[in-house]
Amino acid sequence: MAIPEFKDFLLNIRPSFDPANTVYNVFWENIFGCTLYLTEESFGLNVSKTKSKICTGKERLDEIENAFFDVTQLRLSYNVYKAVYAIVHALHDLLFCAKEGNPAVLCGDVSRIEPWEVTKHLKRVNFVNRFGEAVYFDENGDPPAA
Predict the structure, then answer these.
(1) Which residues form the Receptor ligand binding region domain (predicted)?
(2) How would you classify the pairing of strands 34-35 and 53-54?
């Protein structure tokens, strides 16, 4: 199973005008084989002498055929995503006490959590993630069969 909405997220990546945020820009330049924002003022270069094509930032990722966009093989990543949320739910149940009609208050000592306590609460996890999938474990602590 692919991570729901992940392909849409990837296809909506755009270059950033923030010089501190270079990750998207490097990605963009590698995918399209071009250079972003190459100007004489910013790099002290003569643009006409460069061999790199200039990116406009308006190139379309949905027109690229690249293995990077094949999100159907990300089952492991999606399972890690669900596992992290399951642990978060278990820790929340372990650390917070909720009484009917009252908001949860901290009742556990974070510095004294034992692994067996986390395991105990993890086995009782039962929630629906933001993609509508129920996450829970059977009496042996195994997830349901897919």
Answers:
(1) 27-144
(2) parallel
Q: Looking at the domain assignment, is residue 142 inside a domain?
A: no
Residues 116 and 89 in one domain: yes
Give the type of residue at 124. R
Residues 63 and 24 in one domain: yes
Report the C-alpha gap between 93 and 117 in whole angstroms. Answer: 10
The answer to whether residue 53 is domain-embedded is yes
Amino acid at 140: N
> Is 145 contained in some domain?
no
Rounded-to-integer distance, Cα 3 and Cα 69, Å: 12
The sign of the dihedral angle between the CA atoms of 34, 13, 24, 77 is negative
Cβ-contact 144, 138 below 8 angstroms: yes
What is the domain extent for residue 131? 75-136
Q: Has residue 12 been placed in a domain?
A: yes
Q: Helix 75-95 and helix 115-123: axis angle, to 10°?
A: 110
Cα separation of 143 and 123, whole Å? 10
How many CB atoms sit inside 10 A of residue 90's CB? Answer: 19
The 10s digit of each residue's pLDDT in 121-140 is 899 999 999 888 899 998 88
